[in-house]
Automatic annotation (TrEMBL), chain A:
It comes from the Bacteria. Its EC number is 3.6.3.-. Keywords: ATP-binding, Hydrolase, Nucleotide-binding, Transport. SMART domains: AAA. The gene is lptB. Coiled coil: none annotated. Residues 5-248 form the ABC transporter domain. GO terms for cellular component: plasma membrane. This is Lipopolysaccharide export system ATP-binding protein LptB. GO terms for molecular function: ATP binding; ATP hydrolysis activity.
Automatic annotation (TrEMBL), chain B:
Its main location: membrane. One of its GO terms (cellular component) is plasma membrane. It is found in: Cell membrane. Pfam families: BPD_transp_2. It comes from the Bacteria. The chain crosses the membrane at residues 6-25, 32-51, 57-77, 84-108, 114-132, 158-179, 208-233, 245-267, 287-310. It comes from Bhargavaea cecembensis DSE10. InterPro entries: ABC_transp_permease, LivM-like. This is Leucine/isoleucine/valine transporter permease subunit. The lineage of its organism: Bacteria, Bacillati, Bacillota, Bacilli, Bacillales. Keywords: Cell membrane, Membrane, Transmembrane, Transmembrane helix.
Length: 257, 340
């Protein structure tokens, strides 16, 4: 089967520092793949290269066999590459519902209509409410986004991504900075996405139990290089990985979990 | 919610009706002129708020669109017959020119980040001001020129009603615009431009559109302004006009359409009465000094303007009511579930 996402020698240098170093990877459709690696391994930079926020120094990204060279993040999102951000990135002074509604509106291609009243698109609002229900935020629909808790913002972030309904979801540490009690609900949301079976997911995470539980495959980045790529079992047994990441820095997991 | 909205609309209609009927009760020329002035500057301030309050773009060059409208109307009425038809044509022509200029300027400059954009618009407006001063064949430079307004407007009342009509139409058009799917995206751009882009919206398109819409309506305000004076000179292109619009928007309340109207009202009245005081207290010759102080106080203590402050007060009150209601809420919810 043709991979939905592929990179070839993907590299970016910031001055003398090579943040992502000749990464080759393929992602088959509907696979759930996790990206792990210690802090500074280049995981988020790797995401930025795929989503188009950064331009690679070298190498290419392919989406469904199509070269993405020179396409802006906007165009990539429209093609079907949606991403969430590690740092919470929502519209702070709009309601939770409006945040999601904007994403639905974008997906439906209603971009430039300057005359109709926005609420006449009733189904957008209804669908937004449904999505909010999926991420267990329906009770907060009318709250202002800056007023909800951090965990709820993370859920909102995922809701916006779901609303875009892209084939590929790039999830950058969806549980970052969440309190322990909030993690299971996010986990549920992600599991629901996986069970839907029609989304390809690339997930950055530090919580190993969560990764082992959800992933079809795992790739390990270390100092920008792709260290290993395989099933969770293979990765757990891989000696280089253990030395470099799991064994070599035992505090890493706990520090960021 | 719906009844509340209707309540607001109801009051707006009442106010509009009172204003429309005003000339029947009062023949105070000063008041008529002052109110006309307020209507015109309300249009200007609303158009500015599309940029500042809705899209989050700070522009220091708004006067150039105002000036384009003012000059287009003045020149056409001066060179051709001063008829009502020509007046309408000149408004349309001014809007078209302002639209084209704002489109090109927007395309060239809106890629810039906020304060660079602000500087650039200032420079551009400066360029237009210089052009108006030097192009004496058309503008007669700083001296300006007088022209005859259409017969129809010889009666101040007619012009008063026309300006009021324009204000109402622009208010309705713009309130529909900001509530449209497109207007919603403009607000999203203001809130978080990069996030808007990552949702798949091309933010540059929206910023350019906002600047074109703002430019067009500023030009309308300019056209009305020059007819109200029957005179035009380079003062319509100066920074003062932009600052007026900025001041009115901020004092009234950014991000609303009523705000700029309130701001224009407050500032025009204040200007009128403060400069009137100058006869007794010479310090009021420099009434603008007081404005500076008021402005600073407004930015420090009422950053949301009059409308924002009013909303806050109301939110607090309804917040208390909501807290009182909350005690009853679970019961209501259980009931709803039973029924559902």
């Amino acid at each position: 089967m043709e991979p939905i996402l592929k990179t070839e020698n993907l590299t970016i240098r910031f001055g003398g520092h090579t943040a992502v170093d000749h990464v080759n990877f393929t992602l088959p459709p509907n696979e759930f793949k996790s990206v792990i690696g210690p802090n500074g391994a280049g995981k988020t930079t790797f995401f930025n290269l795929i989503s188009g926020e950064l331009k690679p120094t070298e190498g290419n990204v392919y989406f469904k066999g199509r070269l993405l060279d020179g396409l802006s993040p906007v165009e990539r999102t429209r093609l079907g590459l949606g991403r969430s951000f590690q740092i919470t990135n929502v519209f702070p002074n709009l309601t939770v519902l409006e945040n999601v509604r904007l994403a639905v509106q974008s997906r439906e291609g209603v971009r430039y209509n300057p005359f109709r009243h926005f609420s006449s698109y009733k189904k957008f609002t209804e669908e937004s409410m449904e999505i909010l229900a999926t991420v267990l935020l329906d009770g907060k629909a009318d709250a202002i986004a800056s007023q909800i808790s951090h965990g709820e913002k993370r859920k909102l972030e995922i809701a916006m991504l779901l609303a875009l309904d892209t084939e590929v979801l790039l999830l950058d540490e969806p549980t970052a900075g969440m309190s322990l009690e909030e993690v299971p609900s996010i986990l549920n949301v992600i599991r629901k996405i996986k069970e839907g079976g029609n989304k390809t997911v690339l997930l950055i995470e530090h919580k190993m139990d969560m990764i082992l539980d959800l992933s079809d495959s795992i790739m390990v980045l270390f100092n920008g290089k792709l260290l290993a790529d395989g099933t969770p079992e293979e990765i757990m047994q891989n000696e280089t990985v253990q030395n470099a990441y799991l064994g070599g820095m035992p505090h890493e997991q706990t520090a960021h979990a | 919610m719906i009844s509340k909205l209707q309540g607001k609309n109801f009051w707006l209609i009442v106010i509009a009706a009172v204003l429309a009927a005003f000339p029947l009760f009062s023949d105070s020329r000063t008041m008529t002129i002052l109110l006309t002035q307020i209507f015109i500057f309300s249009i200007l301030a609303m158009s500015y708020d599309i940029l500042l309050g809705y899209t989050g773009i700070v522009s220091f060059g708004h006067a150039m669109f105002f000036g384009v409208g003012a000059y287009t109307t003045a020149v056409i009425l001066d060179r051709m017959e001063p008829t009502l038809g020509m007046f309408l044509l000149s408004i349309a022509a001014g809007m078209l020119i302002a639209g084209i200029i704002s489109f090109i300027a927007g395309l060239l400059t809106l890629r810039l980040k906020s304060h660079f954009y602000a500087m650039f618009t200032m420079a551009l407006a400066g360029l237009f001001l210089v052009a108006a001063e030097k192009w004496r064949a058309v503008t007669n430079g700083n001296d300006g020129f007088t022209f005859r307004a259409p017969e129809f407007f010889q009666d101040r009342t007619m012009f008063y009603l026309t300006a009021l009509g324009c204000l109402i139409v622009v208010y309705l058009l713009l309130s529909r615009f900001v509530a449209s799917p497109m207007g919603r995206v403009l607000i999203a751009v203001r809130e978080n431009e990069q996030r808007t882009a990552s949702l798949g919206y091309k933010t540059l398109h929206y910023k350019v559109t906002a600047s074109v819409v703002a430019g067009i309506f500023a030009s309308l305000a300019g056209s009305l302004y020059s007819v109200s004076l029957r005179f035009v000179n380079t003062s319509v292109m100066t920074m003062d006009i932009t600052l007026d619009a900025l001041l009115m928007t901020i004092i009234g309340g950014v991000g609303t359409l009523i705000g700029p109207i309130l701001g224009a009202t407050v500032i025009e009245f204040a200007q009128h009465y403060l400069s009137g005081l100058a006869r007794d207290y010479p310090i009021f010759e420099r009434w603008i000094i007081f404005f500076g102080i008021v402005y600073i106080l407004a930015v420090v203590f009422f950053p949301q303007g009059i409308v924002g402050w009013f909303r806050q007060v109301r939110a607090k009150r309804s917040g208390k009511r909501a807290a009182a209601l909350k005690a009853k809420q679970p019961v209501l919810k259980a009931k709803a579930e039973e029924n559902g």
